[in-house]
Structures are given as structure tokens and as C-alpha cells.
Amino acid sequence: MENLGDLIRRLRKEHRLSQQALAAQYGMSRATISGIENNTIAEVGIRKVEAILNGFGYELTAVARPAKRPTLDSLKKDAFHG
């Protein structure tokens, strides 16, 4: 979520929008936009974030991540045998 907040802040500034203007555009409070950008909001609806991103021409997607992070021992083993 932290990366999303940074992205939304950057896009908002690139489009020369204040937090208040962006909030009004999506029926939110300025405090909600601030919370999203600063990753301080307890909960935010995914639809709100998606709407903002869509408005800037972005699509919210999910990306699979590895089920298990490698350990240092496994990385060493792979490097030795690779």
C-alpha cells in the first residue's frame, strides 16, 4: 500500500491537483487522500484506490509472488551448484 500512496501522490502532483481537488473528484475527504498518500489511514476501500488510479490512466492489478522466500543457505547452495 505504501507504494500506491507514493504513486498517487506523484500522479496528483504531476496533474497539478491539490489533495482537496482530488478528494472532491472522487467524493472523498482531503484527509482520506492524505491518509492514502502517507499510508496512515487505517482502512481504505480498494474501490477508492482503484478509482483514483483509473482516473490517472492506471490499472490496479495483483501479481503473484513466490510462495516462499529463499534462505541464505539455499541461495549459497544454488550459487555453488549453479
UniProtKB/TrEMBL annotation:
Annotated InterPro entries: Cro/C1-type_HTH (IPR001387), Lambda_DNA-bd_dom_sf (IPR010982)
SMART domains in the record: HTH_XRE
Signal peptide: none
Gene3D superfamilies: lambda repressor-like DNA-binding domains
An example Gene Ontology molecular-function term: DNA binding
Top-level division of the source organism's lineage: Bacteria
SUPFAM superfamilies, per the entry: lambda repressor-like DNA-binding domains
Listed name of the protein: XRE family transcriptional regulator
Lineage, opening ranks: Bacteria, Pseudomonadati, Pseudomonadota, Gammaproteobacteria, Pseudomonadales
